[in-house]
From TrEMBL:
It comes from the Eukaryota. InterPro entries: HARBI1_dom (IPR027806), THAP_Znf (IPR006612), THAP_Znf_sf (IPR038441). Keywords: DNA-binding, Metal-binding, Zinc, Zinc-finger. The lineage of its organism: Eukaryota, Metazoa, Ecdysozoa, Arthropoda, Chelicerata. The keyword rRNA-binding does not apply. Its cofactor is a divalent metal cation. This is THAP-type domain-containing protein. Residues 1-84 form the THAP-type domain. GO terms for molecular function: DNA binding; zinc ion binding.
Length: 277
């Protein structure tokens, strides 16, 4: 599968709207011409390979010659790609074009097929843009420390919880995400969750008493117990003496918390209690 490596170009050989375009390899036998092509591309540290292609959109029509009968487009010897767009305006526009379909997917759940029609791009471009934007967003957000200080937690703790529970630092629980069954028997066993009765990835999330997300663990294999996940998440490294962790009865972590002078507290369960209609 060929695709154009030029800046800002999304042309690919297998796209239906690229059927009339040609893709040309670098003249690797002519090193001086290769250097000229790379210079025109304005791509730092780029190394041309036999698989590097530039589409016909970046060559002037005078660079082509056509075979008789087949009318196949070929490059004339010594041709140089000269048609590129490097302006800041175009670059900013491309970033916006990538963000809009991603935001639309996240907020409305619109399918890639519909977005491709709405924005006039292919399904694969919608998918690539989604992966591109979410990966950058993830990299940027990971730099933020969302775990608040103890004084901040106390300042915003709701009044109904403040009395008798003022030392609650975090409320934790686990969540699982079903995944496709791995082909490896070992991975099948590691990811199989008895609780969900399927293969999953498991993570732990923590919130402050006022409901703000304050901790997100990496994802682990679904066979991991809540206690093992809690230890692996290294949440204990963020806790301070006398902190109280609230969770349900699935976390048997009282001893681990006591070892760092913290406490475990369970919420009040309504089972076997008087309830009002």
């Amino acid at each position: 599968m060929f695709y154009c490596i030029a800046y800002g170009c999304n042309n690919k050989k297998d796209r239906k709207d690229c059927g009339t375009k040609s893709f040309f390899g670098f003249p690797l036998k002519n090193l001086s011409l290769v250097k000229t092509w790379v210079k025109m591309l304005r791509r730092d540290n780029f190394q041309a390979t036999p698989y590097s292609k530039i589409c016909s959109d970046h060559f002037d029509e005078s660079c082509f010659k056509y075979q008789p009968f087949t009318n196949r487009r070929q490059l004339k010897p010594g041709s140089i790609p000269t048609i590129f767009v490097f302006s800041k305006t175009t670059s900013s526009r491309r970033v916006l074009d990538r963000c809009l379909p991603t935001t639309s997917t996240e907020t409305t759940g619109i399918s890639n097929e519909f977005l491709s029609v709405l924005f006039g791009i292919s399904d694969s471009t919608v998918s690539r843009n989604f992966n591109y934007v979410t990966s950058i967003r993830n990299a940027k957000l990971k730099l933020l420390d969302i775990f608040p200080t103890k004084s901040t937690v106390i300042e915003y703790i709701p009044l109904p919880i403040r009395f008798g529970n003022k030392d609650i630092r975090i409320v934790i629980d686990c969540t699982e995400f079903p995944i496709q069954k791995p082909s490896s028997p070992v991975e099948q066993q590691l990811t199989f969750s008895r609780y969900k009765n399927t293969n999953t990835l498991k993570g732990m999330i923590g919130i402050t008493p006022n409901g703000a997300i304050s901790f997100i663990s990496p994802l682990y294999c679904g066979s991991l117990s809540d206690k093992q996940l809690f230890i692996k998440s290294k949440l204990m490294d963020r806790l301070e003496p006398n902190d109280v962790v609230m969770d349900d009865k699935g976390f048997l972590i009282a001893e681990e918390l006591e070892s760092i002078d913290c406490k475990l507290q369970y919420p009040i369960f309504l089972k076997d209690k008087i309830r009002y209609n």
